[in-house]
Design a protein that fits this description.
The chain is built from ten helices and five strands, in the order H-H-H-E-H-H-E-H-E-H-H-E-E-H-H. The chain is an alpha/beta fold. The structure holds iron/sulfur cluster. The site of iron/sulfur cluster (SF4) has 14 residues, from helix 6.
């Protein structure tokens, strides 16, 4: 074999060494590929408890190594509205519940301004495990976690969803449209209507979006009044 033809093997060897340095003892693969190989069970069809257990045990992306708890809502019964956030913060990670830290006060004020409460919603996140502090989850985590959010929608069948932050549009539109171009107009996903707007944590850092969020919340309330 020529030196040139050996080059791809060297690259693969270096990649294996790199994975080993990250602590992998086997090659990570896309969850869809593992399902195809029969190495992963398909998600439960209609069972919330099994879904929660699957998320609890999930190791489908590298975030399982640094999370304290995956963040899951257990209170789905009777909920007709869904609220989707971006990813867990430190408190969410600690308690294993979405919007459980200081930001829930801001969220509650936003919702109360249109006569709703956080408790009216099934609350979930686009990515269930906390990334390294100060960073957003990468594409690998977003892709690996997307199946859980879509399954939650399939099980809950909410008529109306309020989606907060930059990650939910990436789940539904795979990055084809930015939040600034999507926000404030209803987006149809199967039987569900989704309204995208900015996350309250982003608003606290960028007060200029407060007015835009208020406009979007008024649109959400109008959709709510029309539907319920
Ligand atoms: S972020 Fe999602 S895909 Fe990744 S380990 Fe957590 S639950 Fe699994």
């Amino acid at each position: 074999m020529t030196k040139e033809s050996l080059r791809p093997f060297e690259i693969i060897k270096d990649y294996f060494k790199y994975l080993a340095s990250l602590g992998y003892s086997e090659i990570p693969a896309l969850p869809e590929f593992l399902t195809l190989l029969g190495k992963k069970k398909a998600l439960p069809e209609d069972n919330w408890s099994e879904l929660i257990e699957r998320i609890y045990q999930c190791q489908d992306c590298s975030l399982f190594r640094i999370r304290k708890n995956p963040v899951i809502e257990r209170n789905w019964e009777g909920k007709k509205l869904m609220l989707i956030g971006d990813f867990p913060d430190r408190e969410d990670d600690y308690y294993g519940k979405p919007f459980s830290g200081a930001i829930q006060e801001t969220l509650q004020k936003m919702l109360l301004s249109i006569g709703l409460r956080k408790e009216d919603f099934y609350v979930t996140l686009a990515v269930k495990c906390k990334p390294i502090a100060g960073r957003s989850p990468d594409e690998e985590s977003l892709l690996a976690c997307k199946k859980y959010l879509l399954k939650e929608i399939k099980l809950l069948k909410p008529k109306l969803v309020l989606a907060l932050g930059f990650l939910p549009p990436k789940v539904f539109l795979e990055g084809h449209e930015s939040l600034s171009s999507l926000r404030g107009r209803p987006f149809h996903y199967q039987e569900t209507m989704i309204l995208f707007t900015y996350h309250p944590a982003y608003m606290l850092k960028n007060p200029s979006v407060k007015r835009l969020i208020w406009e979007d919340l008024k649109t959400f309330k109008k959709l709510y009044d029309d539907l319920f």
